[in-house]
Specification:
The chain is an all-alpha fold. Helices cover about 85% and strands about 0% of the residues.
Length: about 120
């Protein structure tokens, strides 16, 4: 179990650094207040997690340890949006349309409310 934690942690560290550098590179390349850097990171993370899961489902090129490192670790550190998108694809692929709609709707709606509440709480301090 400890080895797994270190594998995921190492991937998360690398993904977080990659997120920072990618976001900064993209955002500094455009003159806009639109969060292009975050959008690019989210889309790249989605593409990457799709490739990793697709390869691991079709071949034996990626063992369980590497899959954890790359998906939970690196992609999770790079962007949790990729995990969210992958979980939704799995729900759709399995025909769980109700859970897809529920998960997507609640995640977006409650996530926005949570951010709003977090900002509001800071005004009370």
């Amino acid at each position: 179990m400890l080895k797994t934690i270190f594998v995921v942690g190492a991937g998360s560290f690398m993904g977080g650094v990659a997120r920072y550098l990618t976001t900064r590179l993209v955002q500094n390349s455009v003159v806009s207040t639109f969060p292009f850097g975050t959008m690019v990171v989210n889309l790249l993370g989605c593409l990457l997690i799709g490739l990793i899961f697709g390869i691991s489902e079709r071949t034996n090129l990626i063992n369980d340890e590497w899959r954890l490192f790359l998906t939970v670790g690196f992609c999770g550190g790079f962007t949790t949006f990729s995990a969210f998108a992958n979980e939704n694809v799995v729900l759709l692929r399995d025909g769980n349309f109700y859970f897809f709609a529920l998960y997507t709707g609640l995640s977006v709606f409650l996530g926005l409310i949570a951010v709003f509440l977090g900002h509001a709480l800071t005004k009370l301090l």
